[in-house]
Amino acid sequence: MDRQQWDDAYASTDLVWTAEPNVFVVRELGGLAPGRALDLGAGEGRNAIWLAERGWQVTAVDFSAVALAKAARLAAGRGATGITWVTADVRGYQPPPGSFDLVLLAYIHLPPAESDALLHAAATGLAPGGTLLVVGHDRDNIAHGYGGPQEPAVLYQAAEVVAALPGLIIQQAGQERRPVLTGEGERTAIDTLVLARRP
Predict the structure, then answer these.
(1) Is the dihedral of CA 147, 153, 158, 164 positive or negative?
(2) Based on the structure, what is the number of domains in the chain?
(3) What pLDDT was estimated at residue 149?
(4) Segment 170-199, tens digit of pLDDT
(5) What percentage of the chain has pLDDT greater than the value 90?
């Protein structure tokens, strides 16, 4: 969807996504010492706010001003400070090199060339010792999982993400199962998760 479609979607309901952080964000990042974090494609801010509540100084980037306005209100209501909201398209956003202890890419689905460029930009933004977490719908989710985009070209495979991150130390790369509650009961989504660190 383009920027206007996302603005319309975010304006049409209280929250498009839950206010709770992604389960893998909590699992993989909960033990990290806080520092400077970059949340690319932050949407309504659920992950950025969770990080800020744990002491991180967060730069949250999204091209939907509607989503970021909702995120700022949610953060204020929860007393989460230390977040800078940046309205920008992640496809053109260039983080300051070597500036972040954590970079998060959660469910950002782009065509391969744009996805590779975004992964490169994310890696460039990492400070020495910094952590990159990439999580999104896996290509196998179409046939064997639930929800998410149905266009194979924009879905992840761990090996392809890893190949776009030369120079980083890969700590984890593979598929993860995520329960999804639906009106028809619990279903399972298949995600890709890659956790990497800059030496």
Answers:
(1) negative
(2) 1
(3) 95
(4) 999 999 999 998 888 999 999 999 999 999
(5) 88
How many angstroms from the chain centroid is the CA of residue 80? 19
For residue 183, what are the CA distances in angstroms to 17, 58, 178, 180? Answer: 16, 35, 16, 10
122 neighbors 99 (Cβ within 8 angstroms)? no
| The two structure tokens encoding residue 18 | 């839950």
Q: Phi, psi at residue 155, to the nearest 5°?
A: -95, 160
Q: Chain-wide mean pLDDT for the chain? A: 92
Rounded CA-CA distance 3/15 in Å is 17
pLDDT beyond 80 at 72: yes
Phi, psi of 192 (to 5 degrees): -95, 140
Q: 135: domain CATH number?
A: 3.40.50.150
Residue pair 74/49 in contact by the 8 Å Cβ criterion = yes
Q: For residue 1, how far is the Cα from the chain centroid? A: 17
pLDDT of residue 7: 44
- Residue 147's pLDDT is 93
Instruction: Quote the domain boundaries for residue 26.
Output: 3-197
Are 58 and 45 spatial neighbours (Cβ–Cβ below 8 Å)?
no
**Nearest Cα to Cα of residue 38 among 92, 88, 91, 105:** 105
- Tell me how many degrees the CA angle 117-23-177 measures, rounded to the nearest 5: 80
Find the Cα–Cα–Cα–Cα dihedral 94, 99, 52, 132, rounded to 10°.
Answer: 80
- Cα of first residue to Cα of last residue in the chain, in angstroms, is 36
